[in-house]
Write a structure and sequence with these properties.
- The structure holds two protein chains of two kinds.
- In chain A, helix 4 crosses helix 5 (85-94) and helix 4 packs parallel to helix 6.
- Chain A folds into two domains: 83-126 and 134-217, Herpes Virus-1 (2-Layer Sandwich), CATH 3.30.40.10; 266-486, Four Helix Bundle (Hemerythrin (Met), subunit A).
- Chain A has a three-stranded antiparallel β-sheet. In chain A, strands 2-3 form a two-stranded antiparallel ribbon. In chain A, strands 6-7 form a two-stranded antiparallel ribbon.
- Chain A has helices at 2-22, 25-37, 39-42, 63-81, 85-94, 99-108, 110-116, 158-170, 190-196, 200-217, 266-286, 350-394, 404-421, 423-428, 434-458, 465-486, and strands at 58-61, 147-148, 156-157, 221-223, 232-235, 242-244, 251-253, 290-292, 299-301, 308-310, 317-319.
- By secondary structure, chain A is mainly alpha-helical.
- Chain B is of the alpha+beta class.
- Chain B has four helices and four strands, in the order H-E-E-E-E-H-H-H.
- In chain B, strand 1 and strand 2 form a beta hairpin.
- In chain B, helix 3 (123-131) crosses helix 4 (133-147).
- The longest helix of chain B is centred in the last third of the chain and has 15 residues, at 133-147.
- Classes of the chains: A mainly alpha, B alpha+beta.
- Chain A binds chain B through residues 136-140, 154, 156, 160, 163-164, 166-167, 178-184, and chain B through 5-7, 9-10, 61, 63-65, 94, 96-99, 103.
- Chain A: Residues 1-23 have a biased composition (Polar residues).
- Chain A: It holds the Pfam family Ariadne.
Chain lengths: 489, 155
């Protein structure tokens, strides 16, 4: 089979080289058209934009590109409003980089808008008065050239401004530095800071911190949260969608920067993670790392991601989560993912209700945590597949391309289980009702297929390729269905 | 007082020469940045008739950073906790180098007149204040009698 492909490839390259030998520009154009027009073909394997609930357009930027992009926006505003770059920067920072809104408001009432943006003052503070005016911060005498003020007119000596900036920058404040005046909230623009600030080290710090502030305030830019990753992601719109950093591999939500969390939304996942941080000690204590076989009671450590367990000793099949018979986990009766609430709970005492609440949380937390662990273990399975593929190729059992489907299956399994993991916080916070029932039904369908896929991936060598690919398709379809119905963005 | 910034010297001089009514602030004889403060409970407040001891310290960065102030006398107040720490915006993010020891102490005095249970430091006291203001004020008055009277003898 591999030989065929190679032969075909060489044939194709011959053909194309012959075409270019002919050197006819028409031919080239035709070729171009052929490739340009059929962009649809490229999407054959992935669902089209409209169909894919996770579709999101974004691109990675390097620091320098992001800086260029911000500078361009700043310049546009400068020319449009005839203000200096420092003012433009502060306006954009203070108004979520909404240029249209800024221009509209500024043109309607320039002074009013600057006041609202803390860049101008309603009433100008009196200039220094008295026979021997002093700086009110250091109490030293006033010498004409060393006194500076912002638009508000609060006069202080250069040394005091410098000290003020040093203290603020050391506290991590840059774009938010305010005038030193009492109850004055006028912001200090960058050019004023740089005119005064003496220490080169702090000047660098100011530049760095204020750039970070600008990026963080920009709704269409986000720092990649990956460790030591300097990539900045640029998106068309600020939505809670999935971003995968090409540089470091981090997968995160564009809107909140946390780990990607579909179908759960940003606020709920944050609540859930905080809850887990607070309560997980108990949960950890309760969910041990090993379990006993429900039939022969031999102690079993889970060393793979699949939750369909087969006891090595008595060969019985059971579910790792509920310890029930795996035969009851066929797709029709799969109920393991559903939490069964005590129907009489309202009539029970506070104590019982609290226990019930803990039980409910532990149910969801246990499954959330278990899928997270399975993901880690399946990472090892991927490594194993990689080594085995290598070995096979070395032994001339097919080419590297022939075995790619195994890696694809492992990657898809990871993707499906990841979504499955994030269905648990969603379900935990859902109100009881028909929508929850539908959600839990789809969740159970997804879970059942993910476990089937996991079982097959772990035994990939003895599973037929067609069967595995069929299972991949089913699992991904379940995942897509669930996201289409419940992912709200 | 050598090595002390001119600003602190000036402020100290003015505090001694023109004291604020109801407030005394005296620098420690060994440390000119440390002040012994006594604030009289404002009239028509549950703290009326009490004298409250505070400590005030000017950190190295003063006036770029706010002074550190703490109640030494026990007080029942939603914005002051068991350790005497004070929840006051100008001591934190609203600090401005143009503010002074004098203005800080005036603000603390004002805080005694107008407790703010919606921005609490001590949740228990704040809850008491919100659920039963009369009973909370009685408690504050009682604490004033118990803690803010006797310890003034040795001051």
């Amino acid at each position: 089979m591999s030989g065929d492909i190679n032969r075909q490839m060489s044939h194709m390259s011959e053909a194309s080289s012959m075409g270019s030998d002919g050197n006819s520009s028409e031919d080239l154009e035709e070729d171009n058209d052929y490739y340009m027009d059929n962009t649809d073909d490229l999407d054959l394997d992935c669902p089209s934009k409209a169909d894919d609930p996770e579709y999101f357009e974004y691109e990675p930027l390097q620091l320098i590109d992001a800086e260029g992009m911000l500078n361009e926006e700043i310049e546009t505003l400068c020319t449009k409003l005839k203000v200096n770059p420092s003012t433009a920067k502060m306006l954009l920072f203070g108004h979520n980089w909404n240029k249209e809104e800024i221009i509209e408001n500024y043109q309607r009432d320039p002074q009013g808008f600057l006041i609202e943006s803390h860049l101008a003052s309603r009433r100008k503070h009196d200039k220094l008065v008295g026979a021997r005016p002093t700086c009110s911060v250091c109490c030293r005498d006033f010498t004409s050239d060393s006194f500076l003020s912002l638009a508000c007119g609060h006069m202080f000596c250069r040394e005091c401004w410098d000290m003020h900036f040093q203290t603020q920058i050391q506290d991590g404040v840059t774009t938010g530095i305010e005038c030193m005046g009492k109850e004055c909230s006028i912001l200090v623009p960058e050019d004023f800071v740089f005119e005064v600030l003496t220490q080169p080290k702090l000047r660098d710090k100011y530049s760095k911190f204020s750039f970070n502030d600008l990026i963080k305030s920009h709704p269409r830019l986000r720092f990649c949260p990956g460790i030591d990753c300097s990539v900045i992601i640029k998106a068309k719109e600020c939505k809670a969608k999935k971003v995968e950093c090409q540089a470091c591999g981090a997968i995160f939500c564009f809107k909140c920067g946390l780990n990607y969390h579909a179908p759960t939304d940003c606020a709920v996942v944050k609540k859930w993670l905080t809850k887990c941080e607070d309560d997980s000690e108990t949960a950890n204590y309760i969910s041990a790392h090993t379990k006993d076989c429900p039939r022969c009671h031999v102690c079993i450590e889970k060393n793979g991601g699949c939750n369909h367990m087969q006891c090595p000793s008595c060969k019985c099949d059971f579910c790792w989560m509920c310890l029930g018979d795996w035969n009851n986990h066929g797709s029709e009766y799969y109920e393991c993912s559903r939490y069964k609430e005590n129907p009489n709970i309202a009539h029970e005492s506070m104590h019982v209700q609290a226990r019930e609440a803990l039980k409910k949380y532990l149910f969801y937390y246990g499954r959330w945590e278990n899928h997270a662990k399975s993901l880690q273990l399946e990472e090892l399975t991927t490594d194993k597949i990689q080594t085995r593929t290598q070995k096979k190729v070395m032994n001339n059992e097919g080419t590297w391309i022939d075995w790619q489907y195994l890696l694809q299956a492992a990657a898809l399994l990871k993707k499906c289980r990841y979504t499955l993991q994030y269905t648990y916080p969603y379900a935990y916070y859902m109100e009881k009702g028909s929508r929850k029932e539908l959600f839990e039904y789809q969740q159970s369908q997804l879970e059942s297929e993910v476990e089937n896929l996991s079982w097959k991936v772990e035994r990939a060598e003895i599973v037929d390729r067609g069967e595995l690919e069929n299972q991949m398709d089913i699992a991904e379809k379940r995942r897509q269905t669930l996201l289409k119905d419940f992912l709200e963005v | 007082m050598s090595g002390l910034p001119r600003r602190i010297i000036k402020e100290t001089q003015r505090l001694m020469a023109e004291p604020v009514s109801g407030i005394t602030a005296v620098p420690d004889e060994h440390n000119s940045r440390y002040f012994h403060v006594v604030v009289a409970g404002p009239s028509q407040s549950p703290y009326e008739g009490g004298l409250f001891k505070l400590e005030l310290f000017l950190p190295e960065e003063y006036p770029m950073s706010a002074p550190k102030v703490r109640f030494m006398t026990k007080i029942y107040h939603p914005n002051i906790d068991k350790l005497g720490r004070i929840c006051l915006d100008i001591l934190k993010d609203k600090w401005s180098p143009a503010l002074q020891i004098r203005t800080v102490l005036l603000s603390i005095q004002a805080l005694l007149s107008a407790p703010n249970p919606d921005d609490p430091l001590d949740n228990n006291v704040a809850d008491h204040w919100k659920s039963n203001e009369k009973s909370a004020i009685d408690q504050a008055r009682q604490w004033t009698q118990t803690y803010a009277k006797s310890n003034m003898n040795n001051h």
